[in-house]
Design a protein that fits this description.
Amidase signature (AS) enzymes, about 450 residues, about 40% helix, about 15% strand, 15 helices, alpha/beta, 11-stranded mixed beta sheet
Length: about 450
Amino acid sequence: MEPNEYAALDATDISALVRAGEVSADEVRDAAAAKHQETHGDINAVVEWFDDPTPVSADGLAGPLAGVPFLSKDYGSAEAGRLVEMGSRLAQGMRASETAEFVRRLQTGGVQVVGRSAVPEFIMHGTTESVVHGLTRNPHNLAYSAGGSSGGAGAAVAAGVVPLAHASDCAGSIRIPAAACGLYGLKPSRRRVPWEEGGWGGIAEEFVLTRSVRDAELCLSVLGEGPMVSAAGPLRIAVCTSQWTSHPEDPEVVAAVEAAARVWEAKGHHVTTVGAPVDYAMVMSTWHALFSRWILRDAERASAATGRPIDLDHVEPMGMRSIEAARRLTVADITAAQDTQGLITTQLRQFMRPFDVLVTPTLGRAVIPLGEVAGDVDSMHQYLDDSDALMPYNYLFNVTGWPALSAPAGRGSAGVPLGVQLAGPMGYEPILLRLADELPPLAD
C-alpha cells in the first residue's frame, strides 16, 4: 500500500480492506510509518514510534477496526509497560502498570497502537508545546498551533499518519485540536467511555479524533456504553455566535457558524439565534477547584514515581502556578465549586428546554498562535485571559458532563480550518453526529 493511498483512507475503509485480505495489517502499518517519517520534521506530532507494536490478534483481524493504525496519547489510557510521561520532565520514565479498558476495547476491535502522540505538560493547555518535546505545528499552516491538549493526535490524523488517534478532553482538549486541524472531535457524555484512573472528578472524557463522522460512530460503538438518544426529523437548533467573554468576536469564526446554520436550516431544521446560555464568569469560578487540582494530583503522582521534586527544574512555569493555586484550595473551596457546578448544569438545562442542540464556534479565534497559552507563560492572569479569547466555548460542557462535538466548518484566511461546536444533553451523541454529517466535508 502506497503511503499517499493509505493517507486518503479513513479507518472504515482500511479495516474493510484488511478484512477482505486485500492488504495486510503489516502493510498498513508500514504505510503509516512512512507517513510519519515524511511529516514528522514539520509537525512534530509523535513523541515515540513503536518498534514493537502489539500484533493484531486473529479476532482483531475480523473486527470493525481490523489493522487500523492508532496513536495513544501521552496521557491517560495506555498499554501495560508503555511510557506515559504526560509531556513533562517530572514524569519521564513513567510506565503504565496495566492495559486500560479503553485500549483493550480498541485492540479487541482490531487497532494496532503504533506510537504515542505529543501533549503539553499535564495536558493543561489549548496548545501542544512543551520543554520536553517542543512545538507541535498545524499541518494546514505550520506557523500556527495544532491545538491542545490532544494536539499531537490532531496533527497526526490531519497529516494522514493515522486515521484515528486517542484524545482526551478536560476543558476542550478533543474539540480544540479537532477545530484547528479540520477533524471530527467528540467529547462523549460523562462516563460514556471507560477511564478507570482518569475522569478528573467527572469533567474529563477520553475518545478519539477522526477524519470522518462514520469513523467516530464506529469508535463510539466499540468504546461506548449506556443509553443514547437518537431522533428523526427536524431538530430545534439554538445558535450562539457571541463571545462569552469581554473579548471581541472574530468575524471569520462567526461567519463559519452562520454558514453551518444555513445548511441545517436548508435541511429543514429550526434554527434560532440565542445569547450565552450561562454566565461565563460563574463557569470559570470553578476552574482551580475542578481543574487545577488534578494537575496537582498528576504532579504528585509523577514525583512519587520518579523521585523528582516538583519544582521549576522539572515543571514549566504555568504548571507550577496551577499547582500552587491548587495547593491553596480548601475543602470549602471545592465544595463551593461543586455547588456551582450543579447550579450551572441546572441553568443550562433550563436554557435548553426549547431546543435540542446548542451550536457555537469551537474556538473564539480563527487560529491558535504558538507560544500564547503555553507552559512557559509566567502570568496566570495573562494565560487565562488569552485562553478566554481563544477558547471560551468548551469548558462549560466539561462542567456539565454534556456531550459536545467539533466539526469542520470551512477555512479561515490563514488556510487553517474553522470548527463549529455542537452540544446537547447527556446521551445526545448520535444527534450531534447526525448534524455533523449533514455539513459539507472540509475542502482541500
